[in-house]
Amino acid sequence: MPEEMYNTGLVLSGGGTRGFAHLGVLQALNEESVYPDVIAGASAGALAGVMYCDGISPREALKIMKGSSRLNYMKPTMPRDGLLQLSGIKKILEDHLHAKTFGDLKVPLYVSATDLNNGKPVYFSSGPLLDPIIASASIPVLFKPVIIDNIHYVDGGVLDNLPLRPIEKLCRFTIGSFVNPVGKEESLTSLIKITERTFMIMMAKEVTEKSKKFDIFISPQELKNYGILSPDEADAVFKIGYKATKDKLKEPEVRQLIASRF
What we know:
- The protein is 37% helix and 18% strand.
- By secondary structure, it is an alpha/beta fold.
- Strands 1, 2, 5, 6, 7, 8, 9 and 10 form an 8-stranded mixed beta sheet that branches. It has a two-stranded antiparallel sheet with strand order 3-4.
- Strand 1 (6-12), helix 1 and strand 2 (38-42) form a beta-alpha-beta unit.
- It is globular and about 45 Å long.
- It starts with 5 loop residues before the first strand and ends with a helix.
């Protein structure tokens, strides 16, 4: 039986707390009456995506997520398989999501994670919701892997940071939101900073080629001035995503495209 065909698919990249920009993108799209019928996300994109797909508005999701400090997001752990754990993020999702499974979501969601045992990307779209979301956001070395059915999973951005693949043939129209531009980094003086920087460079490696596959592609370059572990900058990052999307939708060729499709 063929899978359902969707009109509009939205793909959200990883990028740590730069993912607050995805919420700005969603807010701007909705204001222009563009509502995704399906979302695919990696890492931060999975977090933004699951809240939106559960029916939480972008501004409300921003309010919920920025209500926690960096310490509440990331708890120190014994450094055997990761320096930190995402128990704070999991608690936020447990407290605010209505859905318990992918099937409970109001908008279909695909989440990329990396299967460490077999060295391949995996796309979750059914079954229990929370563990795949946390797995998708677990940056290796920084965060502990998530074990699902005896398989160790880490951040989806390791192998597919802009997961168009699971929905590419299911959508008539696709929008990509990429929040991980790589700028120059002057200071690399700690293990966490070096790991963060290495991961950012790795996540950005395929974006040029992949960006050509989208009908609309949004990639705010100003985000290079923000770290990926800085929840205190949520409002500024949200505004960058919002403004970049508004500006993109004002471009004549994009306006014509939107008018013809929506």
